Amino acid sequence: MQSNSSRALGALCLLSLIWGYNWVVMKRVGVYVGPFDFSALRALFGALALFIVLLLTRRPLRIAAPGKVIVLGLVQTSAFAALIQWALVAGGAGKVAVLVYTMPFWLMLLARGWLGEKVSGVQWAAAAVAAIGLVSLFAPWAHGGTLLSSLLAVAGGFSWALASVLTKRMRREHDFDVLALTTWQMLFGALALCGVALCVPSKPIELTGYFFAALAFNAVLATALAWMLWVYVLNHLPVAVAGLSTLGIPLIGVISGQLELGERLLPTDIVGTVLIAAALAMTTLMSWWKQRRR
Q: 44: number of CA atoms within 13 Å, CB side?
């Protein structure tokens, strides 16, 4: 048991590194390809990689409620992937990562309204701290042209939260294999993104070595391997502990952006990042404490 927990913690660290550094990869590849083109390609090849994983692991390919899975794909893959890639056109990798990871607070509000889940006083306090952090990060008087990027990043976090609520409601009504559900919704979302990419004019794709490396990183590591790690983590660690990854991923994104891209955070960015990280820590510790009480 202890060995399984240790391996799961190691898997969680590797997962955080992959998803955290991927913000830099997605930012850099924007030089060679338009945001919608890359979103479509990464989702399409990511779905293909997951189908290969399903076949190799002999998991079921059939999926219940295909209509609902299509809707989930439009929200989880199409909207989320397009919004964050579009946000990275003008916004820094670290800042976009932090804004996207406001997802838990949108999830808290949506779960209260749609799932009937209670919100504790600590959660409301964390949401208030996060809101102050958002105001500091937006600061249109200090950021000028990156306001649109910030709005897109927050919208990406909201679409992620909405997809999480949809997934939870679907799993209450149907028996889904998590990996199969992820694969099918990604395929449906990828097909929708392909349609968007064909309709929206964009610059020609530059078939450079970095473009292919970024596509492979997203399909193989950030999608196939990362989702296998996530399923393994959820099977061997409490959900509250797994939620700690939400703290590490944007932090790695910020550090990677500074080291590799030379991004520099303004004082308002630093204040906002610290406040949102503190709010995430509050909600994570609250979940952990509730589990310990049970």
A: 12
**Secondary structure letter of residue 176 according to DSSP:** -
Rounded to 5°, the CA angle 273-163-190 comes to 100
Region for residue 264 given its phi and psi (left: phi exceeds 0; alpha: psi -120 to 50; beta: otherwise): beta
Return the structure tokens found at 256: 């990677």
Residue whose entry in the numeric block shows the structure tokens 């009504």: 173
Structure-token pair, residue 5: 């927990």
Tell me what pLDDT residue 294 has. 61
- Are the CB atoms for 279 and 133 separated by under 8 Å? yes
pLDDT of residue 231: 75
CA–CA gap between residue 68 and residue 270 (Å, rounded): 40
Burial of 235 (0-12, 13-18, 19+ CB in 10 A): exposed
Measured CA to CA, the distance from residue 251 to residue 21 in angstroms comes to 10
Q: Per the structure block, which two tokens stand in for 60?
A: 């079921």
According to DSSP, residue 237 is labeled: S
pLDDT at 290: 64
Are 252 and 74 within 8 A, CB to CB?
A: no
Closest by CA to 263, choosing from 23, 10, 78, is 23
Q: Tokens 């059939």 appear where? A: 62
Does residue 60 contact residue 180 with C-beta atoms inside 8 Å?
yes
- Tokens 């004019």, located at residue: 201
Question: How many angstroms separate the most distant Cα atoms in the chain?
Answer: 56
Q: What is the pTM of this model?
A: 0.84
What pLDDT score does 94 carry? 83
For the chain, residues with pLDDT lower than 70 are: 1-5, 113, 115-117, 119-121, 123, 137-145, 234, 237-247, 284, 286-294
